[in-house]
Write a structure and sequence with these properties.
The protein contains 15 helices and 12 strands. By secondary structure, the protein is an alpha+beta fold. It has 3 domains: 161 residues, Arc Repressor Mutant, subunit A; 94 residues, Winged helix-like DNA-binding domain superfamily/Winged helix DNA-binding domain (Arc Repressor Mutant, subunit A, Orthogonal Bundle); 109 residues, no CATH class.
């Protein structure tokens, strides 16, 4: 049977929007939305699919309806900023309505509708846009990889793109103080994305410094050479990504989360949102002792960029028997233990990447 192709059409101006507040799951959902609508038919603006699809897209296990509310609320707070010709700007929501409900057949569904002001960015345009098949982004593991693909795919026909490093970081959603050292940015962003796109998408690239300036010859811009890639590992079709078994097993009621309440994580002194605590508990299957063991290990390690992501990855290792607590970390406990995660929007699908980064910089762990 022929595989159905889902084509994403995206206006250039929409591709230039800063995505700093978007998680991997949210940019994935937006691309799936663009792949399901017909950009030439405004009546397709409302997209509905089984709630089980939404779980898969957002990397969730079935959860309570009140927990879903926090996720859909976040979607409705995504703001688009469009610069004007006179130097000003216009801001509006990307989406205006999310619905989670049962249909007439008592099946749970998720429904999404774009904001009226955003419709000109998604419908009835005739120029200044690019297209790609949806499968290219479904198997990517981080916002950086996802956005790098779109940023370069837009210029595929040109064969190259020259861009300032500051502009590239902004388009990738990287904060001003993140990856401040060139080697970190080169290894963890440019090279990591280069490897991911070559393995999983229809384009690949090389890059080189294009201009330098300031004291020490700091790299200011990059030149990317973009070519078609025929050596990707697999085309992950949307139907395959969602999984037929998931689609067939859409439940008629939302499953509750582990009975453990988040107040039992009171031993965590750092500021975490309720959503982050729920995610940690969910990864531990409600076992507070596992979370405490992982947290004690984190206090010994220190210098963790994302405490939530690190804890989720570690409790999974403990549950899977890869690590048997208690463990000791070589070296003294650091006084400044955790950095740079005040009220961050954690991109939970990037856990493996974050875990690898944390382990690369961590002290050696032994039983």
């Amino acid at each position: 049977m022929a595989r159905k192709k889902y084509l994403v059409e995206k206006r250039n101006i929409l591709n230039d929007i800063i995505v700093r507040e978007f998680t991997l799951q949210e940019v994935r959902l937006f691309s799936i939305y663009l792949g399901l609508i017909n950009a030439r038919d405004l009546s397709t603006r409302v997209v509905r699919f089984p709630l089980a699809w939404f779980y898969r897209i957002m990397d969730l296990q079935p959860v309570r309806i009140d927990y879903l509310e926090t996720i859909t609320h976040d979607l409705l707070t995504k703001i688009v900023r469009i610069p004007t010709a006179t130097g000003g700007y216009s801001q509006f929501q990307l989406f205006k309505k999310c619905t989670v409900d049962m249909d007439k057949d008592d099946q749970w569904y998720f429904e999404l509708d774009a904001h009226d002001d955003a419709l000109p960015l998604m419908f009835d345009y005739k120029r200044d846009y690019f297209t790609y098949e949806l499968w290219n982004v479904l198997n990517l593991d981080s916002v950086n990889q996802f956005r790098m693909y779109e940023i370069l795919k837009q210029y595929e026909r040109c064969g190259e793109r020259v861009i300032a490093v500051t502009d590239l970081k902004a388009l990738l959603g990287i904060g001003d103080k993140e990856y401040a050292q060139w080697n970190n940015f080169r290894l963890r962003v440019l090279n990591a994305c280069q490897k991911a796109l070559k393995e999983k998408t229809d384009i690949c690239y090389t890059y080189e410094p294009c201009s330098r300036g300031g004291r020490g010859g700091k790299i200011q811009s990059l030149r990317f050479v973009i070519v078609k890639n025929g050596n990707y590992v697999n085309q992950l079709n949307l139907d395959e990504f969602l999984g037929t078994n998931i689609i067939e097993n859409v439940k008629k009621e939302v499953v509750s989360e582990p009975e453990t309440e988040i107040y039992e994580l009171g031993f965590v002194k750092e500021t975490l949102t309720d959503r982050e605590k729920q995610s940690i508990l969910q990864a531990a299957d409600g076992d507070v002792l596992i979370v405490k063991n992982a947290y004690d290990m984190a206090k010994q390690q220190g210098s963790i960029d994302s405490l939530t992501a690190w804890l989720i990855a570690m409790v999974k290792k403990i549950r899977n028997g890869e690590i048997t607590p208690p463990v000791k970390v070589k070296g003294d406990i650091r006084q400044s233990r955790f950095v740079n995660f005040q009220q961050r929007n954690i991109d939970f699908a990037e856990l493996e990447r974050l875990e690898r980064e944390a382990l690369m910089t961590a002290a050696a762990v032994e039983e």
